[in-house]
Design brief:
The chain has about 170 residues and is mainly beta. Helix content is about 5%, strand content about 40%. It contains 1 helix and 9 strands.
Amino acid sequence: MSLNIVLAASLMTAISCSDSKKSTPGSAEPDLAGYWKTECQAAPTLAPIGSSYDYFQITADGSQNLHRANYISTDCSGSASSIDSFGTNTVAVGNIVSQSPWTVEFDSTRCNTTTYLTAKFDSEKLYIAEGECGSSTADRCTDFTSSPAYSRMAAEDVPTLPEPVSASPSFCIQ
């Protein structure tokens, strides 16, 4: 998957430093809080994982928790075989760049490093500009060409792993 984990992680960090996930609290702007996921991607045929998708949660306090759900199937069906966690960022929504489609400055901080990104909400999809950019406000990432589309995901659709089975060994001496 082409998701740049470092940028996504720093994206998450920027939200948590902000007092809101909207540039203007109380406005009719899209609420970015909740779960977002990419489309299912089939893995290379030689990989032990059949498919996966990336997902993240943006919380009310601006934390962004990034994950990848891995499946044995090639279409992300069935139960997840593993879930990778890529940490937490803080994200902050800044100035509105455009109203149509709604586009905003989207800053992400992780480990005291802020990455300056741009987010766009268009046709119920969230796009986050990424690439070799974002080290300063003058170098803010604005190119959505290689940005994956994130769709909203219901909390009940967040993948979980089956409970581990525990067994207690017992020894019988005869």
